[in-house]
Amino acid sequence: MTVVDTPPTTLREATIPPDGMYEGARVLRRLPEGWEERPYERFEIVPLGRVIGAEIRGLDLSRPLEPALREELNRALLEWKVLFFRAQHLTSEQQRGFARNWGELETNPLLAAGSSEDVVRFDKASGATPTFENIWHTDVTFRTRPALGAVLQLREVPPVGGDTMWADMAAAYDNLPADVKERVDGATAVHDVIPGFVRFYGPERLAPFQEMFPPVEHPVVRTHPETGRRMLFVNTSFTTRITGMEREESDRLLSFLCRQAHVPEYQVRFHWQPGDIAFWDNRATQHYAVNDYAPHRRVAERVAIEGDRPF
User: Fold this and answer.
1) pLDDT tens across 189-205, in order?
2) Which residues are catalytic, by number?
3) Do 141 and 235 form a contact (C-beta atoms < 8 A)?
4) Coil, strand, or helix at residue 81?
5) Rounded distance between C-alpha atoms, residue 88 and residue 66, angstroms
């Protein structure tokens, strides 16, 4: 008589670290619920990612935008969150003019200026300190009204490396566990200029800006003012704590929320060539400038567009 061993019906005890990032299906919804998807009539669009990032072809951004073209580009921005335009080679004035189609430009006194105070210049030569890179963040959330968006142009590109990545924070919110959504819906968090810049500047440089930019509170989950989409709105550079929580609980939850930007399914990565333009919705994304090009030089110029108060 043959005896067949019966496999055990119980598993050994195993402990999974809390707040982990686990495998499994993800919701990858590019458009808001009920959004009508229509073809683009004035340019060609080439998707670069599943939920975020598209290249726009057939436009010369040095020319003024007609209202209908501006509206169609704005729809593309809302639908794809970051738009790429190859080989535009705009002057600083032309770059500013394009950005002004979406509002007034803002200045940032903490960053090096280019041709004017509302043009920021990132000139990373050999041996330069890798500032404002290698971290996922949303620009200037320490402001009461963080930027609507930004237009970045690469003037000089290293022979290898120097890519930029963007993450869709609506997709990040969609995929939060239900219990986490319950904790963060309606919550607010404190954003502060100091943590984002103290890594590079000493107290003498930063002290004058403490009164100019006092800490502000924003929703942990903001609503997009044009699409109505819900999006995570915390980031490693400027968000310091969740209001009303003990420090340990706040730190743990913020760490989990900020890690959502690291999920590849929510990302697009762009490899630059000289004269390329990226235009992103700062309300809906985080981005990460990859510093992997030393000892080569990388030069970029950026203009930012004034935004509204998150709600």
Assistant:
1) 999 999 999 988 889 88
2) 137, 139, 287, 302
3) yes
4) coil
5) 18
